[in-house]
Automatic annotation (TrEMBL):
Keywords per UniProt: Plasmid
Species for this entry: Rhizobium leguminosarum
Protein name as it appears in the record: Restriction endonuclease
Superkingdom of the organism of origin: Bacteria
Length: 330
């Protein structure tokens, strides 16, 4: 997993700020969003003078900086697509009214009423699918009635007997670790996909675990190596998956997948951990992945492929550079 130097991340963030200015999007002075956008500058100061931030403050700063960098890279890499005006509508929330609670990055928990943060994850996922799909459509960030999936796109897998289909992704951010609540959010996403208002042929539910993960525990444990870190985070996710499935009748799941909603259920996981480098140093590292859960049933072959592509672009798009013929984005 690539480690991004802070100085490089700051350049990406500067380009993102320039993009916002070009679209007349400016967070208010003193807002949480402004603090996030300035976090990389502050973090560079901390690397020079470590005493400026320690403990929980340093952890929060790292998560904010890594989250801003990751989101900025994903957005910059798709700035040239035809549908980018829809992205601008979501980005406009950065200058919205809920500035005291609004957040941009996805590597730390948001507040319970952080509607902007929940909309930003829709933007993030739309940016990922833009690298392999067409006709991207985002549900409007402020005029949404909540009965339509959040992201839709057309995907042609290029496989015999698999024609292009219109796909829908219903994205649900969970805060609770209670199995029944998680199950109900999955069912809610399924109802959106199966709604008559949804014009997609098929769809999947995406669970954003940002607000349900124990980020403090993950960051507070110094991981001996990357392998240990990559085991700890999936264990957290598996706990949420197990909670949703505990004592659950198979028929409950079959109702969810009886219409246009297909397996797998996708689980978005992102956090910041500390990894020992073997030389007595700690390396803050952002871990992120899209996990596909089969939910004890047969997965949709193309859906599983879409999950893999989303995960792939999560990992490689770190500089905000668009792809071109013969070259992946980066």
């Amino acid at each position: 997993m690539p480690i991004v130097p802070f100085a490089h991340a700051e350049k990406v963030a500067d380009r993102f700020l320039d993009l916002l200015r070009r679209h007349s999007i400016n967070p208010a002075n003193g807002s949480m969003l402004e603090g996030e956008l300035l976090s990389l500058v502050e973090l560079l100061d901390v690397t020079k003078t470590p005493s400026l931030a320690t403990g929980a403050r340093k952890a929060a700063l790292l998560a904010a900086a890594a989250g801003v960098h990751d989101m900025a890279a994903k957005i910059l890499a798709v700035e040239g697509i035809d549908e980018f005006d829809q992205f601008v509508a979501h980005l406009g929330l950065i200058a919205g009214k809920k500035l005291d609670v609004a957040s941009l990055g996805q590597l730390a928990p948001g507040q319970y009423n952080d509607d902007t943060g929940r909309k930003m994850v829709e933007l993030y996922i739309a940016a990922l699918v833009s690298h392999f799909a067409s006709e991207i459509s985002l549900d409007h960030p402020t005029n949404s009635k909540g009965d339509n999936p959040d992201v839709m796109f057309t995907y042609e897998p290029g496989i015999e007997n698999h024609p292009p289909l219109r796909w829908a992704l219903a994205i649900k951010t969970i805060r609770s670790k209670q199995g029944q609540t998680i199950f109900e959010r999955i069912a809610e996403g399924s109802r959106q996909i199966d709604s008559p208002q949804c014009k997609a042929n098929v769809g999947m539910v995406v669970i954003n675990t940002r607000d349900a993960l124990d980020h403090a525990k993950l960051y507070g444990t110094l991981m001996p190596d990357l392998q240990a870190a990559q085991t700890a985070l999936p264990n957290e996710i598996q706990g949420l998956i197990n909670a949703a499935a505990k004592d659950r009748d198979v028929s409950d799941w079959e109702l969810i997948f009886a219409g246009r909603t297909v397996r797998p259920v996708l689980w978005l996981r992102q956090t910041v951990v500390r990894i020992a480098d073997g030389l007595g140093n700690e390396v803050p590292t952002a871990l992120k992945a899209m996990v596909a859960d089969h939910v004890n049933g047969k997965v949709h072959f193309v859906g599983a492929g879409i999950a893999g592509l989303m995960n792939h672009f999560m990992q490689i798009v770190l500089s905000g550079v668009p792809g071109r013929a013969g070259q992946f984005p980066s």
